[in-house]
Structure formats: structure tokens, C-alpha cells
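Target protein
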Amino acid sequence: MVFRRRSPPNLARRITNLFLPPGGWRRALTYLRHRASRIPDAPHRIARGLACGILASFTPLFGLHFFLAAALALLIRGNVIAALIGTAAGNPLTFPFIAILSLDLGHLILGTRAEAVPITQIMTAFGQAGDEIFRNVRAMFSADITNWSRLERFFHYVFLPYLVGGLGPGLAAATAGYWISLPALKGYRKLRAARREARACKQAEAAAGEGTEE
């Protein structure tokens, strides 16, 4: 293929890129900001979409954040593309903080702190739960016996606290994202319009000058 890398990155490089993009996080965030500002839609719809993506990133539905963000955007008439961009609020740098905050708050609300899974084992718990779900789904179509009881502890002491505890911070972050992005998008649109108008005026003046010389 024409645009394929000559030397594809190895596994170690791909993992490193998750935590440190090739151009740095500042460049990555700037790129996302430009992408969001250039979406052909009303600023308030784009801001709603971004808020939906931010809220989705505070949920424990890892692997489904895109789908949840898109569904929320459709529900409140936000921009779906902006919602997908907004999920970048949850990334390898922010997920540890989101997880700790959500789980601590969730255990506090539900009164399950005594049975809390150590924070260092959270990702392992999610991985094991995903493996158990896969095994049970496969068992439905084979002679194996399904056993959902192993997921009970995960649901009550990891998933549910994360979901309950992440709702408040997620709504706060989404609201903040909306009110920050809305005026920024409007200002960017006005700036682009002013630049286009200035460019059109210069072209008109140049054309008028050429006509006068003739």
C-alpha cells in the first residue's frame, strides 16, 4: 500500500504510544481540538457531543465508551463525531485518577469499602471479568456449563461502585467541558469568519487594482 509504514512499529512501541503519543500529549490534544472545531455542525451540538464523550469515559464500560458516547449524543441531539472525540478525556494518563476517584466515592456511597478490591488489582479484575464473560457466552453454544457466580463479587465490589461513584464526577466534568467548549467553539467560528471576510476583501481589492491598471 502507498501509505503503509516501511517499518511497522513493534508491540513495545505501540504500548509506549498509548501513554506517550509520538508528538506528545500537547500535540495530540491540539489535534483533537482542531478536529472538534472544524466539525460542520452548530457549536451547541458539538459541545453536547463533547460532554457526552467525557461522561462516557467516567464509566466502567471499557471497550464500549465509543458506543455509549454515540448513544448519549443521539439521545440529547449532540454531535456523534464530537462525542467520539470527547472520549479522549479517558486515556492512559487520566484513567488511574478516574478509577481511584470513582471507586472510593462509590464504596463510600454504597458502604462497601470493607470489601473493596485493592486499586492495584482493578485492571486485573476487569480482565478476569471479561474472560469469564467470554467463557460463559462460548459455553452457551457448546457442551460447557455456564457459571455466572464468579462475576458476582466483581459486579458488587468493582463494577457497581465504579459506576455509581463515577456518575457524579463524570457529570461535573461533562458540564464543565460543555461550558468551556461552547464559547471556545463560537469564538473560533467568529475568528474563521473574520479571516475569510478579510481574505475576500484582499482578493477583491487585488482584483480591483488589476482592473484599474488595465
